[in-house]
């Protein structure tokens, strides 16, 4: 069912694109900050044994990612019921306050609960921003708009590394919270999606999360969208976050820090997101661009795990950089998720899909730990990486192409 009038569109460098980009910049800063300050923060809280740092770090990552699973559903439903803007700014407010509080933690329990709350807040910004950009840009420019959001956004990880290294982990959390609160001042000039406003005037049901499970074809589309993003979080959540542990197992000739691993990976992501978004526009195909990047990612996971044994830290970080480029299909993945569904469920999907993909770390970590005994660190990572990449490639290959698709429609048969 199409809306009776064409909704308002905007330019590629409009206030909407700028605010969504800066919002994702702060989102990524706060999202990845724990991976950067994990060792220093845990050491200061009295956890110094190597195994304890690894285990408590994984516990805190799981709490953050668990919060993102909860937040993905919450913000996604609100985005379709109340609007994209309310989610965009509400999520920024929540994760900013949580990260300010994170700078004051004194115990692991406090740290864990605040990472949970921060995770809930972090879950909303990207999906709301991508949905808003996709619905307000002309369809021939959508890919460029979401590319800008991602390219600007992922560079927030580099600022997180610089601030964490220069000013300490507590101040890094304070800076992240302050940046988010400052961003709320940019609300002027950002307007709600015209497609959403038109749908709100109709009697169609909006934001019914369960409607994704009541239709077999719709559920299949949704599940495939979720699976596409899992390889990126396998790379970031396991290979990069545990870079010190992997470098030791590989016999790297000097010390490797998780902070620098994250920095170089996300530096690569900046280029990867730019390249994947541009490639999808040049090829006029989201699916072909995703397939190429998944193959590239598979090659780089193999290089990371098997080709740098005994190398220098410089070579190791260079591989982290190229590995980051290879998983630079994140915004393209979220764009595809948004383009696969109608206006009344679009925010729900675009918000839950990336957060369920991020939250896959909650499943990947215990699988990784269970396989680590019989297969070792390298073997368990190789098996998980191969499995997630093959499944993602199948999911992309069986999804309908969405390049140039008219998004001004709603999903029917909600009951």
Q: Would you write up a description of this structure?
A:
- By secondary structure, the chain is mainly α.
- It has a single domain, classed as MFS general substrate transporter like domains (Growth Hormone, Chain: A, Up-down Bundle), CATH 1.20.1250.
- 75% of the residues lie in helices and 0% in strands.
- α3 runs antiparallel to α8 and α10 crosses α17.
- The N terminus is likely disordered.
Q: How are the secondary structure elements laid out?
A:
Blueprint: H1 15-44, H2 50-81, H3 84-102, H4 108-122, H5 125-136, H6 142-154, H7 156-167, H8 169-183, H9 194-201, H10 216-228, H11 230-240, H12 243-250, H13 258-283, H14 286-306, H15 313-326, H16 330-339, H17 343-359, H18 361-397
Helix pairs in contact: 1-2, 1-3, 1-4, 1-5, 1-6, 1-7, 1-8, 1-13, 2-3, 2-4, 2-17, 3-4, 3-5, 3-8, 5-6, 5-16, 5-17, 6-13, 6-16, 7-8, 7-13, 10-16, 10-17, 10-18, 11-17, 11-18, 13-14, 13-15, 14-15, 14-18, 16-17
Structural key phrases:
mainly alpha; Growth Hormone, Chain: A; membrane; MFS; transmembrane; 415 residues; 18 helices; globular; MFS_dom; disordered N terminus
Question: What pattern of helices and strands is seen along the backbone?
Answer: HHHHHHHHHHHHHHHHHH
CATH class value: Mainly Alpha
Number of beta strands: 0
**Helix content bin:** over 70%
The main pleated sheet reads as: none
Distinct helical segment count = 18
Total domain units: 1
Which band does the percent of strand residues land in? under 5%
Gap between N and C termini: 16 Å
CATH architecture designation: Up-down Bundle
| Cα-atom radius of gyration | 20 Å
The low-confidence parts are: 1-5
The CATH superfamily is identified as: MFS general substrate transporter like domains
Look at the helices and sheets and give the structural class: mainly alpha
Q: What do the pLDDT scores average to?
A: 87
CATH topology descriptor = Growth Hormone, Chain: A
Shape call: globular
Organism: Hymenobacter guriensis
Protein name: MFS transporter
Keywords: Membrane, Transmembrane, Transmembrane helix
InterPro entries: MFS (IPR011701), MFS_dom (IPR020846), MFS_trans_sf (IPR036259)
């Amino acid at each position: 069912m199409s809306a009776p009038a064409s909704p308002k569109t905007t330019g590629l460098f409009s206030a909407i694109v700028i605010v969504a980009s800066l919002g994702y910049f702060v989102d990524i800063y706060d999202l990845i900050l724990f991976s950067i300050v994990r060792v220093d923060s845990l050491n200061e809280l009295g956890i110094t044994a190597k195994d304890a740092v690894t285990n408590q770090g994984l516990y805190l990552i799981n709490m953050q990612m668990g919060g993102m699973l909860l937040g993905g559903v919450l913000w996604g439903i609100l985005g379709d019921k109340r609007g994209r803007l309310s989610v965009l700014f509400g999520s920024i407010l929540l994760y900013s306050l949580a990260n300010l509080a994170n700078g004051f933690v004194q115990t692991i329990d406090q740290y864990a609960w605040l990472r949970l709350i921060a995770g809930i807040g972090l879950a909303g910004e990207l999906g709301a921003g991508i949905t808003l950009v996709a619905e307000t840009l002309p369809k021939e420019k959508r890919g460029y708009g979401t590319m800008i959001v991602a390219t600007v956004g992922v560079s927030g990880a580099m600022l997180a590394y610089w601030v964490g290294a220069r000013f300490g982990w507590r101040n890094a959390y304070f800076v992240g919270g302050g940046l988010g609160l400052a961003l709320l001042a940019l609300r002027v000039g950002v307007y709600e999606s015209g497609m959403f406003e038109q749908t709100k005037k109709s009697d169609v049901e909006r934001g019914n999360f369960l409607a994704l499970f009541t239709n077999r074809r719709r559920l299949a589309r949704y599940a495939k969208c979720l699976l596409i993003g899992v390889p990126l979080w396998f790379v970031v959540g396991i290979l990069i976050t545990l870079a010190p542990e992997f470098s030791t197992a590989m016999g790297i000739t000097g010390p490797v820090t998780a902070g620098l691993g994250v920095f170089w990976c996300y530096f690569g992501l900046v280029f990867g997101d730019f390249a994947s978004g541009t490639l999808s526009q040049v090829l006029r195909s989201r699916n072909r661009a995703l397939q190429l990047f998944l193959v590239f990612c598979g090659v780089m996971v193999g290089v990371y795990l098997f080709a740098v044994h005994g190398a220098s830290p410089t070579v190791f970080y260079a591989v982290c950089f190229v590995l980051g480029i290879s998983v630079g299909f994140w915004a393209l993945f979220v764009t595809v998720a948004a383009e696969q569904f109608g206006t009344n469920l679009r925010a729900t999907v675009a918000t839950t899909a990336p957060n369920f993909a991020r939250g896959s770390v909650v499943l990947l970590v215990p699988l990784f730990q269970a396989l680590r005994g019989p297969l070792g660190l390298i073997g368990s990572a190789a098996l998980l990486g191969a499995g997630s990449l093959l499944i993602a490639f199948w999911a992309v290959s069986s999804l309908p192409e969405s390049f140039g698709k008219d998004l001004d429609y709603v999903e029917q048969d909600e009951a």
